[in-house]
Write a structure and sequence with these properties.
4 copies of one chain form a homotetramer.
Chain A lengths: L1 E6 L4 H11 L4 E6 L9 H4 L25 E4 L6 H10 L3 E4 L9 H7 L13 E2 L2 H4 L2 H4 L3 E3 L3 H15 L9 E6 L14 H4 L4 E2 L8 H12 L6 E6 L6 E8 L8 H11 L6 E3 L17 E8 L4 E8 L3 H15 L14
Parallel strand pairs in A: 1-2, 1-3, 3-4, 4-6, 5-6, 7-9, 11-12
Antiparallel strand pairs in A: 7-10, 8-9, 10-13, 12-13
Helix pairs in contact in A: 1-11, 7-9
Chain lengths: ~350, ~350, ~350, ~350
Amino acid sequence: MIKTAIIGASGYTGLELLRILALHDKAIVTAVTSRQYAGKQVTEIFPSLIGHYDEMTFIEPSEIRDVDAELFLCCLPHGTSMEAVPILLKAGKKVIDLSADYRIKDVATYEKWYQAHSSKDLIAEAAYGLPEVFGRETIKNADLIANPGCYPTGATLALAPLVKAELIKNSSIIIDAKSGVSGAGRTANIATSFMEIAEGFNAYKVGEHRHTPEINQSLGLLAGAEVSVTFTPHLLPIKRGILSTVYADLKDTGSHTTASLLEVFRQNYADEPFINICEEGVLPNINEVAGTNNCSIGLKLDSATGRVVVISVIDNLVKGASGAAIQNMNIIYGLCETTGLISVPL
Amino acid sequence: MIKTAIIGASGYTGLELLRILALHDKAIVTAVTSRQYAGKQVTEIFPSLIGHYDEMTFIEPSEIRDVDAELFLCCLPHGTSMEAVPILLKAGKKVIDLSADYRIKDVATYEKWYQAHSSKDLIAEAAYGLPEVFGRETIKNADLIANPGCYPTGATLALAPLVKAELIKNSSIIIDAKSGVSGAGRTANIATSFMEIAEGFNAYKVGEHRHTPEINQSLGLLAGAEVSVTFTPHLLPIKRGILSTVYADLKDTGSHTTASLLEVFRQNYADEPFINICEEGVLPNINEVAGTNNCSIGLKLDSATGRVVVISVIDNLVKGASGAAIQNMNIIYGLCETTGLISVPL
Amino acid sequence: MIKTAIIGASGYTGLELLRILALHDKAIVTAVTSRQYAGKQVTEIFPSLIGHYDEMTFIEPSEIRDVDAELFLCCLPHGTSMEAVPILLKAGKKVIDLSADYRIKDVATYEKWYQAHSSKDLIAEAAYGLPEVFGRETIKNADLIANPGCYPTGATLALAPLVKAELIKNSSIIIDAKSGVSGAGRTANIATSFMEIAEGFNAYKVGEHRHTPEINQSLGLLAGAEVSVTFTPHLLPIKRGILSTVYADLKDTGSHTTASLLEVFRQNYADEPFINICEEGVLPNINEVAGTNNCSIGLKLDSATGRVVVISVIDNLVKGASGAAIQNMNIIYGLCETTGLISVPL
Amino acid sequence: MIKTAIIGASGYTGLELLRILALHDKAIVTAVTSRQYAGKQVTEIFPSLIGHYDEMTFIEPSEIRDVDAELFLCCLPHGTSMEAVPILLKAGKKVIDLSADYRIKDVATYEKWYQAHSSKDLIAEAAYGLPEVFGRETIKNADLIANPGCYPTGATLALAPLVKAELIKNSSIIIDAKSGVSGAGRTANIATSFMEIAEGFNAYKVGEHRHTPEINQSLGLLAGAEVSVTFTPHLLPIKRGILSTVYADLKDTGSHTTASLLEVFRQNYADEPFINICEEGVLPNINEVAGTNNCSIGLKLDSATGRVVVISVIDNLVKGASGAAIQNMNIIYGLCETTGLISVPL
């Protein structure tokens, strides 16, 4: 059994890791930290875990050094994560970091969009944990995984086959993304209250969301050139899920059909256990992946304009965060990649 | 008092007309037709109208000829509307048609996207009822109003100032629209059941929604040239409202700011009672216009890509249908345009 | 025009008063106080009010003495209200207090369920503002109105005809009430976040909710004897509305039918503009009164057990708070009682 | 592997059986029938099952005789089920019937509340599948299981310990139950559309719901005397779950506390893997059991009235239907009772 500890477990990604690991055959959770809830029972804060963690209590972050675990799943906010991770690595632990701190390879870009970075030297060592796009090799051998952001996961999975095959004009890429409320985190806030969210819908941080440089980085790596997308996030009145509607102009509008483009996706993701390519004429619904590590992708060629419209859906808390972390854990430890991650949505 | 009759009043646009006219000072409803509910009390089918239409009963469509009314609000589906409207006009009545039958000026385009047209000669006479974009003159003098579609209303209001001022490349226009469930109509259907809609979200009819040619027509008129947009509708898990996120490449990227573009909108809609332009840094939420005839518009210049992102919100049943119809009625009868249409959202 | 001021206007009852008064013919709002938002524009905090209060700014509570108003609508929390009200009355103002501070006539009972009372002498002067049950006389002549609680309004309207007619065993009364989230107030709280509320439902404060003594007081007054009910509130995943399911054993089970009991209600509330008694076989839905000052009541005799089951629905923010306050204002000023309170639910 | 077939699999209980059995270690589904969808792929109708039943197609009910299965899970509506079950039993199959047809032991009672019964002789043979209340013995040895109704499961689990211990006056029992929309079945119906359900709430079939005699039967068996409850179902705007608020007068009001009553429940259900008794002061939320086979129970003594208020929550599709069916299957086949039924709610 792999012994894991979850740092900063009071939020939704921590809860989601606990949910997934509760039924994982090869890994257990030995400790969870939370400044806010230290000393409280896990099941008192999260009654949905009753029957699975009845004996577990949140501990102080400072107690982490005494924890019997080899893998640390770090759910701290960016900025805080870069303080904790170096200590864990120095102690010989493996770390999967769910924050943004080690995702952006270019320090100046990170510091422009986020803040000053206090452990720059570790950025190069971190493996970006999106195996469907960048493969398993670097993940397998890394001590530090930078777990991808939720929006970048949905957008990159929807665009990678097209960018890799050089089918689209990269300067034309627009990502119109819609996320469930869990993406906003678990904090007391009138803006995410039921009263504000139910029967509401809005865009936010247009052109200035911090996931933009992460998307640009991944697409740029695939393109071998700088890419700059327009990215517009919206807040959906649902709990979970991101639907990304992606627009791009085809380079050669005459030589494609919806079917031929779907075939590009199907071949690209042929061996991927978590990716489903929809039949022609079918578009994915966000509720088909809720609670799962799956990504479902459909598309349509808009022949009147020569644009391709790709639509991907993921659960932002699973494939967009905690599920991807466990998938990366499975890769690191040589387990079957789907261990603990097979589920059927309600 | 203007005597009005509502034809095909069993759906949401009919119910919405009844709701608005219940509190209108200068108009009353004298009859409502419904094949499905003929003989039933209006308040039995729509308990929300108790206290306002307690004595009114749905009548058969065939009884319409005996109705004492001068203005007919036609809520029939397209195809059926074109059968009813010519008879009413011949009888000297005024008609506001909420279907698509008289919106598209080019018959071939109508017949390509919808069906064969049986009263083509009336198309030219019909005034397209979007006064904020095309003015009041033709509406004022028309016997037949083609009331705009819900998606076209939201998209055209978001784009008209930019197209008129020739600020954007019209070939680059992308409209990513999200509508509440009432847009799907009031019919028994598993696809619009609570079980399917709640916690769900999906795109549909990508590149093939029937509102596309209506949007192209309006923008083409403003541009003085053919326009072909990419239009992607989505289905939101809310009851009312359309949020349209509109993307376009600026012709001259260097000479604009978010503030200067907002000023273009502000001047363009300066005298419009139902249009609100947001302050810089503010984006509209769909819940701010629910139940009202208002349209709220915000925008952002994405300086990294030279694209402008405009966001408009309307209530699809009010400004997108029945409220616009009453606004057009007010114009026809020389009333203050806001009569019966001032409300504060819940 | 009646000049009104709203004290403590940052919550849902304050917003609701602003919404209703925006369209009231005979009253205007001259000032709104809010410690939290003092200095901010009303429409910045509440965008739904754009177009109605564009020039209004929240002021500090301390500035209230300089406000030009004759009627003060007090939305402060209990405990705080009893500090502000005596000052206003001394200054010759009229006050409608939406808190619990002047509802409970028995000081010991108030102090047991709430806290120490600092202006006990005013309790006797306060008129309890539920005109459908206790008439208009005391309201008309009062300078201080204790506006009823939301749960007590729904429960008392459902029970008053039965208690007054002495048809039920008062010791058998059970009130199972379900409220929308707005009842919990407008505060940042994980417990009322969309994530916790959507797809959830729970009972709370069983047997210990503070509205219990208020219900007991009203029913006791009608019965001429002490009444002690079982009251169980629940939290519904909707924004507005309270549905109260009330159970009581009939004294004489043999002499009633559902129809005869409905007739008791119909006669009791014959002249009430805001109360609707459902037809036999029809039960009210909470969505039929959303946004209105109406109360709709249905009932069923459970002949197998000799129990009557009465179901009432109100909008907790309107008839359960701010609408009732305006109704009381209309009574005080001799206006038609429905002024500003006629609306049709969406 | 146990080979199972699902009859009438086009509804929510059929879908739920497919969901649960997809991950069951010891059982597989070999066939699914559906008149409506015969010939269609399972994953076309239920995209949430993609990856699990990709090769499976719905077959005609008439093809059931050729199916290779030993256990038939029958999801037909009542009336239809009694036609199919005798044929299967005669063919030597085991049947778990999710309809009401074999739940009511007294034929006259069944025929009064439902319809004429065409296979009365089998009623006595059927084992009522609520093991937590009536034990495992009869289930283990039965060829036909009458799987309990959803409301009866929630209500009976909440009342059994009190009735068995003779602590309450059985004539005083009131069950105020609230169910998610899935309880209404998967049919196209305006009444269960998102537009009607969202932001709505109502009671229905007060005093006349068909689950009433089933509840009376179970409590009567435990009491050794006739019991007649008042049962009021309500429709919640959520997908899944039933919360039952149960009221009963204690026989001896002086000798109990909330803690002592909780202890009665705790001892009664001490060995039950799916039942959780809440701590004193804690009440269960419906979202804690969504997607699970669990029942969580909390209670409060209302000392002012001598009534106990018990609150139970279940997922109506799992413990209230398909999960209970799999639990019964596990018992029949001597498997660990929790096989395939351990899950953590989202």
